[in-house]
Design a protein that fits this description.
Rossmann fold; alpha/beta; two-stranded parallel ribbon; NAD(P)-bd_dom
């Protein structure tokens, strides 16, 4: 498949690029600074330098893709709109290019539902995590709303705390509900999950929770 990856120089994005290439996909990595893309050169890897919030700038990267994946995320805890602005640009570019499949990384901590234990649902998330990570979580919620309203064939992959560890291949998933006790996952396993849902029609227009 031909995949376009936003946020390719982030720690999750690099995992996406590496694993996609290992699986034999053709990858277009959208970056602001090519020097930060810690991936060996490959004939199936194309690097496009662009402002990810500018639809016109990212249009060449999206053209001809079978799917677009976003690993965009905030750095630090201050005000941010990177997830929303980036996915909005991607959606506009995809609409003009006729690309339909979109997989977006999101945060399980930003959403509480019946899948959470009572303490997590009514104490940890609203009273601890959301005040601590308020700006980043609000950006991700806005991003998800924009994606849901896009009319595209989208999937949100919601992850808990991210770890910089090796892939295990042993993770749980749930559709449209949080995973009870799902506190962490490695970025490598998150990337594997995101790549795995691309061809899963049952995940289209749903969110998939992933965790150990």
């Amino acid at each position: 498949m031909k995949l376009t990856i936003f946020g390719a120089t982030g720690r999750t994005g690099i995992q996406l690029v590496r694993q996609a290439l290992e699986e034999g996909h053709d990858v277009t990595a959208v970056v602001r600074d090519p020097a930060r893309l810690d991936v060996p050169a490959c004939e199936r890897l194309r690097v496009v330098t662009a402002d990810v919030t500018d639809p016109a700038a990212v249009a060449p990267a999206v053209e001809g893709a079978d799917a677009v994946l976003s690993a965009l995320g905030p750095r630090g805890r201050g005000p941010t709109t990177i997830c929303y602005d980036g996915v909005r640009a991607a959606i506009e570019a995809m609409g003009k290019a006729g690309v339909r499949r979109l997989v977006v990384c999101s945060a399980a901590g930003a959403f509480a539902d019946a899948g959470d234990g009572l303490f997590t649902r009514y104490v940890v998330k609203p009273l601890i995590l959301n005040p601590l990570l308020r700006d980043g979580f609000e950006d991700m919620r806005r991003c998800e709303r924009e994606v849901r309203d896009s009319g595209l064939e989208w999937t949100h992959v919601r992850a808990p705390q991210l770890l910089d560890k090796e892939a295990t291949g042993r993770y749980r998933t749930a559709t449209d509900i949080n995973l009870r006790g799902g506190r962490s996952i490695s970025r490598a396993d998150l990337a594997a999950c995101m790549l795995g849902v691309i061809g899963d029609d049952d995940s289209i227009r749903h969110h998939v929770s992933v965790a150990y």
